[in-house]
Amino acid sequence: MSTVENEIIQYFQKLDRSFYMETDKGMAHMDQPVSIGHGQTISQPSLVLKMTLLLDVYPEAKVLEVGTGSGFQTDVLASFSKEVYTVERIEALHERAKEKLAAAGYHNVKCKLGDGSCGWKEYAPYDRIIVTAAASKIPPHLIDQLAFGGKMLIPVGTPVSQELTLVEKDEGGEVKTTFLDHVVFVKLQGDYDEAEG
Ligand code: SAM
Fold first, then answer.
1. Containing domain of residue 18, as a range?
2. At a CB cut-off of 8 Å and minimum separation 6, what does 111 contact?
3. To 10 degrees, the CA torsion angle through 58, 102, 9, 187?
4. I need a surface site. Which of 63, 133, 170, 180 has the fewest CB within 10 A?
5. How many angstroms does the Cα of residue 129 sit away from the middle of ligand 1?
6. For 72, what's the count of Cα atoms within 13 Å in the CB-facing half-sphere?
């Protein structure tokens, strides 16, 4: 295991999930998904950690996160990369996460309210992209906005079950996908089904 991976695990063990929760704070330490309101959830901590490690973040990385939710995953990403650009479509969650991340002292996070399924073109390309909602297919704009040498993690499948998918774009722009695990996420909303890359 690399030093960065060890540091991420240690950071994660100390991170208090209840800081990003509004209700059911007693469940913060359980390895279970918890509600954050508006029909949305934070995944179980073991999955958040696993996805962070698989994303392979590094101190110089520019990261796009689609699905800010509570800001819990954003916190971990922001601690181990240079900049995080995070998009959330539900205004109340976006506002709450923005406040929490500012209160936690992050200056390297930009939060946007909107449809992240088409990415955030203004700041592209991204070295790493993480989507924390279930897509029916890999959104073409996200592949477009991934840097050469970049990696994206995205759950792809039906609303009830998805394959956690690693998308790697090599230095020549070739894209390779690898299925890693079965996961269950809330649906990725948005217009990406119709969008061209
Ligand atoms: N990673 C988050 C956390 O740590 O709290 C949890 C994310 S939750 C499983 C998925 C989030 O994706 C929800 O907050 C949902 O509103 C958001 N979402 C779904 N479709 C979206 C879209 N097209 N653009 C931005 N956010 C979206």
1. 3-196
2. 68, 86, 87, 88, 94, 97, 98, 101
3. -90
4. 170
5. 13
6. 29
Structural domains counted in the chain? 1
**CATH code at 54?**
3.40.50.150
**How far is ligand 1, taken at its centre, from the CA of residue 89, in Å?**
7
| Alpha-carbon gap, residue 138 to 157, rounded angstroms | 10
Q: Is the pTM of this model over 0.70?
A: yes
For tokens 């490690």, the residue is 53
Q: Which numbered atom of ligand 1 lies nearest the CA of 192?
A: 23
Within 6 A (CB) of ligand 1 lie: 36, 40-43, 66-67, 69-70, 72-73, 87-90, 93, 115-117, 132-133, 185-186, 188-190
Determine the residue of 79, 90, 121 to mutate for testing ligand 1's pocket, defined as the one with the most ligand atoms within 8 A of the Cβ atom: 90
